[in-house]
Write a structure and sequence with these properties.
Blueprint lengths: L25 E3 L4 E4 L5 E7 L3 E4 L7 E6 L6 E8 L5 E9 L8 E5 L12 E10 L10 E14 L2 E2 L10 E3 L2 E3 L2 E3 L4 E4 L4 E6 L3 E7 L6 E8 L7 E8 L5 E8 L5 E8 L2 E9 L9 E7 L4 E5 L2 E6 L9 E7 L13 E9 L1
Parallel strand pairs: 1-3, 4-10, 14-17
Antiparallel strand pairs: 2-10, 3-5, 5-8, 6-7, 6-9, 9-10, 11-27, 12-17, 13-14, 15-16, 16-27, 17-26, 18-23, 18-27, 19-20, 19-26, 20-21, 21-22, 23-24, 24-25
């Protein structure tokens, strides 16, 4: 991640006592906290900054437009970033001088926040400050402080599986569980739909796994589950032995919206949230996410958090998996033998 990160949000929000209701700053996104000195000497008209899901290589620049209320002046910009593990990264402040011939209107376009080096995936908080001089000097005055709290979720990689079965880092499992035997032949890629397909026939299902064991970060899947009562789709972390290292999202394969969020540690189920939500997982692609960090594990559907546990989960590296199967303990009208799970992408 580049030191130029300092400007990503900086240009978030600056409103002054001189701005009227008609001159309110237009903010994108709207979720920003800010403080501004009354005599800062400028106003801000528009601010646009990256938010939502951001993938390595995406354009993460920000733009700010505004007006000097007095003569253009030299200011210093400093930035701090808090990563998903709670670590603060303070970037060196830099001097921003007015350009020759600059009038009262100004536009600032920031460089991208992230470069090609890996970073911890997950929600980030940014804080940007504008100072009247080098903040390392005695007497420096902070003219503005702007903060977005976890408005941006960063991912290093999006896997679309277009080269399946040769997708690096992933493979189809070959084993049995419950009433289902997982076979590699049940996993394929559909070029026409540009999606990975996991099929289930009578007694036979499919499962994909990462070769690598993963630790803390955010992990997200975009998928449409089949309408196949009596079966489920799992998106989860797992490591042997059973019931010691597992963090699950389990979607019931029917229109009910029933989803389970569970954790296992020390040989037993430690947490289980089994609720019905207001959506149909069989009707189009939906987004499911696990945030897995030292202080908590949280579960999301379509960007909304639905469960969070602060203990009772494993901290050991685990494989990330997706499967479509028929448990012995899941009741349902098994009036069909076949179905297909559609995976659009997995981000991590």
């Amino acid at each position: 991640m580049r030191r130029t990160l300092f400007t990503i949000l900086g240009l978030l929000i600056m409103t002054t006592a001189c701005q009227t209701e008609e001159e309110e700053t237009s903010l994108t996104p709207e979720e920003i906290n800010f403080e501004l000195e009354e005599d800062a000497g400028f106003r801000i008209d528009t601010v646009s900054m990256p938010s939502g899901d951001v993938l390595q290589g995406d354009d993460t620049s920000a733009e700010i437009t505004g007006q000097w209320l007095d003569e253009p002046q030299t200011v210093w910009i400093g930035e701090s970033l808090r990563d998903p593990l709670g670590n603060w990264i303070d970037f060196p402040a830099y001097e921003q001088r007015p350009e020759d011939g600059e009038d009262n209107a100004f536009t600032i376009q920031t460089p991208p926040a992230f470069d090609e080096s890996p970073a911890v995936s997950g929600p980030y908080t940014h804080v940007l400050s504008i100072w009247d001089q080098d903040p390392s000097q005695d007497g420096a005055v902070r003219l503005m402080r702007a903060e977005t709290n976890e408005a941006l979720t960063y991912f290093n990689q999006r896997e679309r599986f277009s080269d399946w079965p040769d997708t690096a880092g992933w493979y189809a499992a070959d084993h049995a569980i419950g009433q289902t035997s997982f076979e590699p032949g049940q996993v394929s890629f559909d070029d026409g739909q540009n999606r990975l397909l996991i099929h289930k026939d009578s007694g036979i299902g499919g499962e994909i796994r990462t070769e690598e064991r993963f630790s803390y970060g955010s992990y997200q899947i975009a998928m449409r589950v089949p309408d196949h009562p009596g079966t489920l789709t799992g998106f989860f972390f797992y490591e042997t032995p059973d019931f010691h290292h597992e963090i699950d999202i389990e979607v019931m394969n029917n229109p009910s919206g029933e989803v389970w969020f569970t954790t296992y540690q020390g040989g037993q189920e430690r947490h289980a949230s089994k609720e019905t939500y207001d959506f149909d997982p069989t009707d189009g692609v939906h987004i499911y996410r696990i945030d897995y960090f030292p202080d908590y594990v949280a579960f999301f559907i379509n960007g909304e958090e639905h469960a969070r546990f602060e203990d009772g989960y494993s901290h050991e590296p685990m494989q990330l998996m997706v499967n479509y199967w028929e448990p012995t303990w899941l009741r349902g009208a098994r009036d069909m033998d076949q179905g297909t799970l559609y995976i659009e992408s997995i981000m991590y």
